[in-house]
């Protein structure tokens, strides 16, 4: 199954089809890819929803006992089967020994987050002391940006802007607005938003770098998504980081849609700070425990403006003398004790990632999403000879270096009907305003045959529209 390092997904599909003596769109290609997939067994580590349990399903159109086609891991990942086991372990420990659970067991509650931080640091490419597991994404973002000349946003009369991409996730947008308001800054002047060129959906790297070069002296913080939630564009994190730091800016990233999706090397890239949630590709459930990163070069110079008990060194934390011994780096930003039940679901998922490895998952993801792209272009691209045919456009970049597993689709017809009919047939993906349907085949639990079945169902849905 595995393509050579220089082989594009389309070339792999053509090669396999040639070996099987069929067309790349033939079902045999999908079945062969699944058979050769060395990661296919990881699907068994997750609960895959059944058709009959989905609220929008039309049971007259499906086999109720079949598994759904779940392409919404970019919104909420599926549940690892070990989550229930780990939760029951901690509930059982609480029931049997009460307060003693703080210091004994596989996950002593007082250091529950620290027992799995090494697993998390592997996924984001960081040293273990550069990663903290705490709070939710936006809370972490606020803590990292908070002022008093300690954290990353320290505006001056000459350097006061925050640079971000257009249509950033609303939570990021609101966080930045409120941080600027906290400093009494004019939002319109201080919130520098870079938009795609006229008629384009995604940003060009050269345009981002040009803004940094021309306006960098007035930019305090560059805060980009690692991967844009709507378009699916993967930004060039090392290039943006290097350019921003060369102009004296702090550079940080919201990695909500990148973590667990693409390979990250935050330490080696020199990123100043980052934060992420865990309920998408990291499969921890709604509101799962979030993460934060601060590069070790800032361990003794960047400090939290707000502190709490769990930012105090563990060795003297329980002396209770109210003399703060702040942990250097990101762990000093921790305020409260770790929520152990949330630690459990993250632990269950991170163990799967350790077995699979991000390198292998990314390799499969490139081919899996490439297969989806190939099939969409084959069946639904613009054809002037068939003016009544519904056209499906992919606004996500076609270069594999500029995307993760998600493709965002737009249609030449209103998408409300399309998404409703797909949901009736057991396809789980999501509609995002203004006119996109996001489809994310996740390499941990999605198969090539899932993609094949999705294309068949999409053909059926669009065919019914056309007639």
Automatic annotation (TrEMBL):
Required co-factors: pyridoxal 5'-phosphate
Binding site for pyridoxal 5'-phosphate: 137-138, 169-172, 225, 254, 257, 279, 309, 337
EC number: 3.7.1.3
Molecular functions (GO terms): kynureninase activity; protein homodimerization activity; pyridoxal phosphate binding
Swiss-Prot/TrEMBL keywords: Acetylation, Cytoplasm, Hydrolase, Pyridine nucleotide biosynthesis, Pyridoxal phosphate
Residues making up the signal peptide according to the UniProt record: none
Entry's localization field: Cytoplasm
HAMAP family registered for this protein in UniProt: Kynureninase (MF_01970)
Protein name: Kynureninase
Lineage: Eukaryota, Metazoa, Chordata, Craniata, Vertebrata
Gene responsible for this protein: KYNU
């Amino acid at each position: 199954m595995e393509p050579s390092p220089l082989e594009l997904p389309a070339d792999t599909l053509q090669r396999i089809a040639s070996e099987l003596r069929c067309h790349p769109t033939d079902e045999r290609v999908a079945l062969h890819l699944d058979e050769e997939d060395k990661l296919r067994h990881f699907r068994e580590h997750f609960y895959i929803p059944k058709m009959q349990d989905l609220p929008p399903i039309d049971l007259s159109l499906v086999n109720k006992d079949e598994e759904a086609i779940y392409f919404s891991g970019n919104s909420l990942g599926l549940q690892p089967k070990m989550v229930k086991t780990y939760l029951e372990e901690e509930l059982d420990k609480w029931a049997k020994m009460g307060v003693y659970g703080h210091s004994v067991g596989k996950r002593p509650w007082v250091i529950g987050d620290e027992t799995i931080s090494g697993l998390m640091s592997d996924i984001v490419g960081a040293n273990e002391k550069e990663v903290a597991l705490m709070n939710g994404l936006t809370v972490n973002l606020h803590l990292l940006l908070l002022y008093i000349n300690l954290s990353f946003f320290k505006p001056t009369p000459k350097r006061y802007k925050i640079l971000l991409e257009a249509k950033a996730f609303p939570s990021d947008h609101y966080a930045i607005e409120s941080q600027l308001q906290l400093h009494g800054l004019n939002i319109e002047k201080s919130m520098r938003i870079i938009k795609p060129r006229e008629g384009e959906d995604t940003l060009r790297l050269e345009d981002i770098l040009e803004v940094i070069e021309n306006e960098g002296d007035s930019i305090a913080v560059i805060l980009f998504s690692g991967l844009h939630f709507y378009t699916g564009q993967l930004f060039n994190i090392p290039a943006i980081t290097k350019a921003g730091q060369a102009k004296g800016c702090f550079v940080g990233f919201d990695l909500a849609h990148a973590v667990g999706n693409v390979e990250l090397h935050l330490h080696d890239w020199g990123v100043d700070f980052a934060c992420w949630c865990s309920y998408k590709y990291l499969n921890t459930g709604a509101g799962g425990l979030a993460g934060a990163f601060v590069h070790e070069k800032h361990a003794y110079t960047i400090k939290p403006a707000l502190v709490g008990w769990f930012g105090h060194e563990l060795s003297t934390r329980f002396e209770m003398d109210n003399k703060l011994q702040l942990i250097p780096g990101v762990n000093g930003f921790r305020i409260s004790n770790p929520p152990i039940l949330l630690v459990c679901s993250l632990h269950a998922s991170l163990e799967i990632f350790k077995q699979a490895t991000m390198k292998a998952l990314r390799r499969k993801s490139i081919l899996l999403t490439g297969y989806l792209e190939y099939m969409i272009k084959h069946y639904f691209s613009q054809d002037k000879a068939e003016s009544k045919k519904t056209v499906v456009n992919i606004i996500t970049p076609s270069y594999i270096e500029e995307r993760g597993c998600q493709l965002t689709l737009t249609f030449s017809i209103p998408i409300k009907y399309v998404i409703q009919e797909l949901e009736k047939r057991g396809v789980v993906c999501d509609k995002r305003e203004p006119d996109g349907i996001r489809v994310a085949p996740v390499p941990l639990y999605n198969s090539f045959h899932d993609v094949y079945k999705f294309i068949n169902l999409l053909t059926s849905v669009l065919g019914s529209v056309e007639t």
